[in-house]
Structures
1.
Amino acid sequence: MLSVERIHSYYGKAHILSDLSFEVRRGEVVALLGRNGAGKSTTMKSVMQLVRPRQGQVTFQGRNLVGEPAFRVAKTGIGYVPEDRRIFTDLTVIENLEVGRQPARKDAPHWTVEQLFQIFPNLSERRGNRGKHMSGGEQQMLTIARTLMGNPSLLLLDEPSEGIAPVIVEQMAATILRLKAEGLTVMISEQNLHFARAVADRAIIIEGGEKKFDGSFTELEAHPEIRDAYLSV
Amino acid sequence: MAFFLAQFLTGLANAAALFLVASGLSLIFGVTRIVNFAHGSFYMLGAFIGVTLMEILPGHVGFWGAILLTGLAVGLIGAVVEMVVLRPIYRAPELFQLVATFGVILVIQDLALMIWGAEDRMGPRAPGLRGVWRIFGEPVPKYDIVLIAITPFILFALWYLITRTRLGVLVRAATQDREMVGALGVNQAWLFTGVFALGSALAGLGGALQLPKGGADLLMDFNIIGAVFVVVVIGGMGSLPGAFIAAVLISVLNVFGVTYLPQSTLVLMYVVMAIVLIVRPYGLLGREEVAGEHGQVGAPETPIRPYGPLGMALVAALIAALAIVPVFAEQFVMTLIVDMIIFALFAASLHFILGSGGLVSFGHAAFFGGGAYAAALLVYHTDTPMELAFLFAPLAAGLLALAIGWFCIRLTGVYFAMLTLAFSQLVWSVAFQWRDVTRGDDGLVNIWPAEWLNAPAPFYYFTLALGVGGIVFLRHVIHSPFGYALRAGRDSPRQAEATGIDVKRVQYAAFALAGAMAGLAGGLFVFSKGSVFPTTLEIGESFDALIVVFLGGVKTLAGGVVGAGFMTVVEDWLTRLEYWRLLLGLVIIAVVILMPEGIVGSLRTLWNRLRHTDEEEVR
């Protein structure tokens, strides 16, 4: 579904991603693992074209994305939930959802505001509140819901468990599994191996912008040295 | 009492057009972050197009239809301007776009002159609303009452659009984080064009709606733009109700000012703005501007370095070349170069505070003209020897900067810019209206240099030594520990404070130094011309400096100097032609689009690219 081939991404002169390739197949949940600064967020931004890879290809359902503006990437069916949430704090919950609204898509589940309120009951209670009056967990729910309003077929979740209370993290895991059951393909970036194993089918580990491992969690458990070398446990 | 009420109603009626124009500017700024100087030009276009349409279309339907059609037409023109001029440069450094909008002003001025001629047009009376109604015996024009009645509907319609429609939600979201809006699948380019068109249409509507009260003339653009910025800033950038309250406040105060304190009219609104900003730094209903909010910062700064041997050699060669000019050149060449050096020093002082300090001042002419006036007043009134009076120029300008900076430095971004503008207008109005001391617009004349300097060649060397000396000194400061602290405060105020730098104090000192250096340029200016007029303190003078700094390149050290040289030469060529504004505007727009990093910045990027192509290909 998504294929990233040998991309190189930079911030100014800093070389962040180097010769990175991976695939995401329809219907799976893939976890992108790595330490702080490994290049996880840049990988997601490079797919979204918020960072332009200087070399390499990003193809989604047969379409090359490199060089497209971000809004067009979103319109092909990739939903992006940024790490720092970036909800519109001056807008109400309902208005935040409205910004994300896009027409229905054939190959992806269709979401309405009411369905999303069923998945995220907290948001329903706070539908008239402004974003700035919400807790970190609620803001995280809102960013996910806002992105789902675009009816994506692939969801990119950048560190959804970061800075959130453990109880909410558990809810989050259940939510991601539910989204998968609805037919959504998901890629999450994580530092929390425990959380990743609970929701993902496959792990990709990067370090210093290079891929170090790509395989199932069973394989990963068979090689504890990889985990020790590239993940902080 | 009745008279009082009638005055108040006139103020309210005047507020209608002002509010329309200001709300358009506020919308545009909120979403695109562009400080659109050309907004007054759209207002003027609205007036001229309105007059023309009203002449063609008959009767009631014609009058009101013409107003609506005018809004539509100006909206379309705005869309074209946005797509052609602004769309290519959204990624340029912050506030760079205002240079492009300045080019647009010049182009529209000459186009309007070509199409409608130089004569003022009387606005037609609104059909059926020609006379007056008597309110408690006082005559109030019927059209005024209609305007007062219409304004709340316009406010309501705009409020509905912004708070209750999808477009409004997107606009507000983009005001906060436009990159995220794009990542959610919204085409920002069209959103921007749409908002710019809507804002322009509002300005055009304002221009057409005021026709029965004002008419149309070629000075309308500059006459309203000051008031419009004041209204937007007092209300709070991006707040529609704020703009409404401020428009009423300014218009009503203005009407009473004309009646009771006629001398105050030039400066009243700037005084109000200064007071509001000192009490409420983000305007009445504005929210705090957070520097570098998502999607609103450019690429990280490339640190500037002192010149290497090659650069030093080039500078030395340039100075040597300038030094031998009097040997062979004619007098007008020397005069041109003196002008250029003075302007370059003035621009370099603005560049110092803007580029290295990150403080965009819209009122730098206060220090240039302030220095010039300080020296001239001493010579004129007390016959002070030129040498002493000249020293007084940078000193007085530096003190003035200390006084103005004390109020301004606590603000940031556009609010800082507007407060400096307000203070410079105050200084200007003092020079313009305190006739006993400054002789008003007659200016101070016969301010010539001392005997030993009073010839082209000696004064040339005097200017060269002090001008180049001043520029080199500013560069030296940028590379000193003080300069590091200043740049640290610009790039990351919080981190700078955490390392023990008192950012505000450093900025305050830098602001005073920039003022003193502008005053030095002013001192050179007054003795080179032998006279000084209030024009040296005008907004236009501040904007000229601003434009050359941006044109030269904010993020490069030589930017101000190169920009000043470029502008002096281009203006010298172009002003000989009839439609020089049109050409100058087009040149500015072309430079802005082709060289988004400024002249120096773009040349450097090109140079680096040429040098590094082989290297990159190997990788």
Note: The two ends of chain A are 31 Å apart (CA to CA).
2.
Amino acid sequence: MSESDKEVKELIKREYEHGFVTEIESETFEPGLNEDVIRRLSAKKNEPEWMLEWRLQAYKVWQEMEDPEWAHVNFPKIDYNDIAYYSAPKSKDDGPKSLDEVDPELLKTYEKLGIPLHERARLAGVAVDAVFDSVSVTTTFKDKLTEAGVIFCPISEAVHKHPELIKKYLGSVVPQKDNYYAALNSAVFSDGSFVYIPKGVRCPLELSTYFRINEAKTGQFERTLIIAEERSHVSYLEGCTAPMRDENQLHAAVVELVAMDDAEIKYSTVQNWYPGDEEGRGGIYNFVTKRGACIGKNSKISWTQVETGSAITWKYPSCVLRGEGSVGEFYSVALTNNAQQADTGTKMIHIGKNTKSTIISKGISAGKSDSSYRGLVKIAPTAESSRNYTQCDSLLIGDKCGAHTFPYIENKNKSAIVEHEATTSKVSDDQLFLCQQRGIDAEQAVSMIVNGFCKEVFKELPMEFAVEATKLLEVSLEGSVG
Amino acid sequence: MTQLSSLAVVEAHQLNSALPSQIQTLQKNAQEKLSTLVVPTRKTEHWKYSAKRLGDLSLLSNNSETVSTTAFVENAIYIDISAAGIDAAALSEIEESGLTLQAFTQLSDEDCSAIIELAEYERGELEQINTALFNDGLVIRIAKNAVIECPIILNFVQDEAGLTTPRVYIELEQSAQATVIENYAIADVDGAFCSSQTTALIGDNAKLTYLRQNPLGSAFRIGGTTRAILKRDANFESHILCLGSAMARHDLHVLMTEKGSHCELNGVVVTKEKQHYDNHTEIEHIASNCTSEENYRCIADDNSHIVFNGRIYIHKDAQKTLGEMNNRNLLLSNSAEIDTKPELEIYADDVKCAHGATIGQLDEKEVYYLKTRGLSDEQARQMLTLGFVLELVRAVPIASLAEQWEQTLSELLSFKD
């Protein structure tokens, strides 16, 4: 083993830096799932009757479904009765009225995570809705957003304040019976973010959510709903962390986006859930359903994701291109190291005329991990002159990992053009040699090459996220060379 | 969910008592396995797009007629394979140095073991049906260093409805070379179903050129499996002309088990009317330093349906692999459908693998260019459509066959007024 390899091996031991637990009093349901738990959950949130009915209906649907087994991942069966479906920081009042009232321990947690909550937030121009375990803790910059007419609040609040919007759009993109985890989420979702951008408004701030699972043995089931009316524009960021624990924790979220005529939604995720230790013990199961509906003409939905965490990732952010001339985009970097497994990709469903979609997926596998791209491009007979371009590249680092590509392409319209390209290769010895010859050590060289490999995706990320993503990749890759 | 073992044709089947006992045991085991398999549905991943084309398998019956056909390539060895089995007497009349032809019924115990060993690679519902139900099989053996110049043509003939299960085993010893052409002639009637299986064991430095032509039809169904197992520095070249029928499926499975082997897979698929064709190819790189190249071109017109599922599977020890797969599709009608799924499954790091798939229509610029040269719109389109597949047809190593294929395709692709 060369000198640089040794350094690298030492670096591999670097631990997950967000793996702390915050000691705050919290109120958690005992583990278990039944109708009664859903009723209690709903009562806890003071929900109206129709919301409870909706949850119970989803629960019924869920009970009749079976967990999907088609993904290229292996994990022991989940005992859904061993999970607590509600956990919230205990507060004496009904809820914090301002930042000052938020538990200082909690604020410290977010400080540790480095999310811009206080003044830093204004500087960064980001409005944050932070979801801690199951409830939204605080939403910053409400005033500025209200001025613009933008609604950005916890979804539990939206149920009370904007029931007509929730009734109309909740489950309209991801129906309750869409899949196993979406059905589970529909039954037990605890909180999440709700965004409504009125006609012609360009959201003055980038909206952001930060998710953190703190309590042991809890699952996090948040639900995000974003509605962009005609000619509006919004950029939404999402980040996630969790403490280090030996057991696996479940995160089953649902994200629904709705874009009307000429509206644009840009949804960026940096996912850094705890990936488990080197042997694959612990870590988050990230089973997420994300889907956007381009309903209006010339609307656009763009997904950008950087996935470095989670023991298992099962996630396919999709676009249903219904409106004429609508555009769907998917830019993804999925990195797996150690024993992580990722089965991720996208679905682009072309229904309207002249719809366009672009898929750029970069998979990086290191250690003994497995990463798969699974995608579907479907052209319906009605999708005249639609166009898709897909590129999925995989990079292998080490000889024990796997990289797979499973693209499904279905075309029923003769005027559509669909292109798919995929390559798999490793960081070549020549590239490494060239860098080392110029005085760059192996570790840095790999990170440089990987960054170059992912450049097409990073340039789609909002600035502050792009910086974070680059750093995340460096940290996640440490020790994988040699 | 219907179990394969409960199909009438399976229950009515009687083992051919003339087969060596080892082969009979293999068949009995396969029959037991059928009880664990069900008739594929849309939810069966490898039948996702084609299950509805399978038809009602419970109506299938046995077929046992005998037939013979006429020659289509000069200087070739012709062997008829029909439901009744292999005519051992006719086989013994063929004399070619280095070539041994035998029916399964003539095999010694030792020969049987080799065939049974290869049965381990079998999978898939249709292949199990073949293994459980075949009456007889053909063994083609090419001796060490022998180069068989004239192509060996296997005529799979079926004149009426019913299920036929032809089975062929080809073995090329060290440095041997041969060309095998599979020709299917199946009666175009409802209820005609052919489930064939061909296994080729290609020895060190040997080369097999494999050609297969699937006939055009509208009523019969066919599901065939071809498996090639490559030893050190072996070479496998395949050219397939796929014309559609009510259900047509071909599984091509290449296993590169030792260093330095190479395979090249070419396929041309053209379907019209309500036809269907499903190609499933899998190239398994098991040993290091092997290369593979795959090129499939498909054209779907009218209400037809083409499926392509190509997979490159690279095992942990298959370092220094080069794998390339290319699938291009032309969709000529809005009622036609093309589903393609080029897959890569890679467990080794020092590899270079790429695949590309496109679905589209003719380039309007190219059409325009030809029109400026005085061609009518129709002529231009026809020329470009034909040109799209001819590149692969012209790579066929037997000139007379390449010409026939070109002729067939140009007739098929000529536009109706």
Note: The longest helix of chain A spans residues 442-458.
